[in-house]
Amino acid sequence: MLVIYFTMTRSPMLTLIISIIFLISSSSICNAGSPAVFILGDSLLDVGTNNFILKAIGKAKFPHYGIDFFNSTPSGRFSNGLNVADFIARVVFGDSVTSPPAYLSLFYGGKYSEKRLAKAIDDFIPRRRWRAPNGLNPVSLVTQENPAVGINFASSGTAILDINSAVDQALALSEQVSQVIFVHGNLTATIGAWRTQLLFAKSPFFLGVGNNDVHFFALFRAKLDPDKYIDSLVQTYNNTLTSLYNIGVRKFGIVSVPYIGCSPLMRVTILGGNCSKTANDLAQQLNDKLEQLLWDMMHYLKGMIYSFGNTYDILVDLYENPQRYNIKNVRDACCGLGRFHAMTNCHPLAVLCKNRDEYLFWDVSHPSQYAARIMVETVAFGNMTHARPINWSKLASL
User: Fold this and answer.
1) What sign for the dihedral angle of Cα 40, 94, 298, 234?
2) What single-letter DSSP state applies at residue 170?
3) Which domain of life is it from (predicted)?
4) Tens digit of pLDDT for each residue in 72-110?
5) Which residues on neighbouring strands pair with residue 146, listed in sequence order?
6) In angstroms, rounded to a whole number, what is the distance separating the alpha carbons of residues 301 and 104?
7) For residue 206, what are the β-bridge partners?
8) Which DSSP string do the residues of 308-371 spell out, in sequence order?
9) Alpha carbons 394 and 381: distance in angstroms, whole number
10) Measured on CA atoms in the order 34, 37, 40, 44, is the torsion positive or negative?
């Protein structure tokens, strides 16, 4: 049994490290499929990071966001309830959990909050073992959130290129990687290199980024050479994965760029309301290059394994065959105003649809909770059409 004492002299960093140590103290990492889960990326995966970034433009901390979340509380997720990060966490740890907490939520007033961290530590064991009461649907929401073990670094507006992240004043991808390295370095100093290496090697790192790079190209930079633009994205992505690999990450779960050209955000910019062919074509080309990059890296980086989640084709199917999924509206945002409900973001004065599970899109560019669940579960448990070379559930079990 781990006993932890907090004192006024303990450094803020040590407090953080103690909370992370618990990830490996209650049971042997050697016997665990995935002792923790780490998430990097953009607004599809953000669980509140931007609430702690003063200048960040993209924030979901007001109604109607979170209307189907715990106690109908806005959580910083760009969703009516759970988002992609939450369903990823459920793949790793089971239906009882949500995404691990946002890294920046461990701060308060610029300093770590020992009270918050102590509570998180106290709750770690029941969070790992908690199960939904009998009779509850596996994805039913209960009154208390149950975060998984790990850390979420994702920030709404993050792009592959830091210059694109700056458009929304989001946390740059390079900064998210720096935060991971920061945690790794202090863990090494506290619990030793071997245990840190084992934790990072056995925990899946999920990365979902590239949506904003495609958005910005389609909306503002179509005059650039698309091939050169994609090459710059792939090279930066390569650098990101290499940096993570160099500190011991071995299990990579990749979220491809979805079929984003048909989102309300993109369609409202086109006179006829059609999908943006520029965005969809660029997303598909980028995905092809990224998947080839992963394949090549796996062959020259010892021990690296990955699962490429083909969310592009899944969203195509949701868009073109909504009746298969009991979806009735693939055109409009559930929450918004104006044409396609995409003239504003979701806010307290926006029009809110009643049957949210019948909508593909929650707001101008994010899937509804229902659609996010379908996307992740298809990648997690599907065949090689949906995830290659293995699916996300297999990745988590290794």
Assistant:
1) negative
2) P
3) Eukaryota
4) 999 999 999 999 999 999 999 999 899 999 988 876 555
5) none
6) 31
7) 39, 253
8) EE-HHHHHHHHHH-GGGGT--EEEEESEE-SGGG-SS-S-TTSEE-S-GGGEEESSSS-B-HHH
9) 8
10) positive
